[in-house]
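I'll show one example:
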Amino acid sequence: MRQDYDYLFAGGGCAALSLAWRLADPAFDGSRIVIIDPLPKTSDDRTWCYWTRDADPYPGLRHHSWDTAAVSGPGQHIRQPLSPWRYVHLRSADFYRHIQQQLDASNHFTYVRDYVTQTEDLPEGVRVHTRSSGSFMARWGFSSLPVRPAGTGIHLCQHFMGWRVRTWQPVFDPGCATLMDFHTPQQGQVRFMYVLPFSQTEALVECTIFSPASLPRSTYAHALDAYLRDRLRCGGYEVQETEWGEIPMTTYTYPQWQGPHMLSIGTAAGRTKPTTGYTFMPIQQEADAIAASLRQTGIPVPPPAREARFVFYDRLLLWLIRERGGDVHRILLDLFARNRMGDIFRFLDEKSSLGSDAWMLARLPWGPFMQALYACYMPQGTPYHPGTVHVPDHL
């Protein structure tokens, strides 16, 4: 097969650009790489946040970072220093601009502004068809396009609306990020406010909900307005930017490979943490692993599969979010009240030990988790039957 390219990206979002940035390294000089995506990435269409205590993959792109974090709820306010960790906020427009500059300087990237309509494997590579630009062949393909996950189980959605606001009065603490504030009616679901303050009068405030489906936009707007006026008593505010998003929270399995020569990446490969929605750092770890394997062997190899115990934890918590959503905030408040923030970060990064997991989880209320264990894993109690769980068509 005559190969038009060495590497092909179907989709040009965060996962594709993160890996492409690593392929701009001199080790890949001479490679021919094509990125197929209908729209150029230039706007500030995403907010990415992550915690880190190691070398930051993009230190010059930090928009803001915090060395203290808080979690609040009725009768509780937990505030902890994060050192040696930091919680980092990165604006997508800065990320896109930085990556684009690096790729343009490498001179071996081609961009095709079109939609991918079909992919097919060939004996020596992959062929990708587009709506109006013809077909492209490559030795290896990387797809971040949405795929339908396999299996049966729980599917929920983290959906949110965020306002970047300027308030008339100083109400924010720019040194402390509020990860969850449950001072908002739960209505049988997990609902909280997420506050990233940039100054005493400027912040990103998001209304976040975990549930089976998103709600009318007015629901989030009313909740944000009530929080700013009644909870923060800001005296008035101006909305400078609005963002909206939906993130899958699922026990379904995402395929690592879509064919012998087409590797899934990003959310399409299951890099989104099911119970939190955090994706940015798993994407960076994925990109590091694939680039390293290509340098060493010429074959892309994704990171190892998740350990079974973390899949087990996620399944129990997702069941509780779905079945007992109005009570979950008490469990999360207990988690943060009884553990150091760094230990929680390590647990969420899936880098904790089994012993530390047991110590952390043993101090949470056992009753709800025993109910979830029975429902998820006992045949006589499980509510899951093939065909009863709806997965949206876009997944």
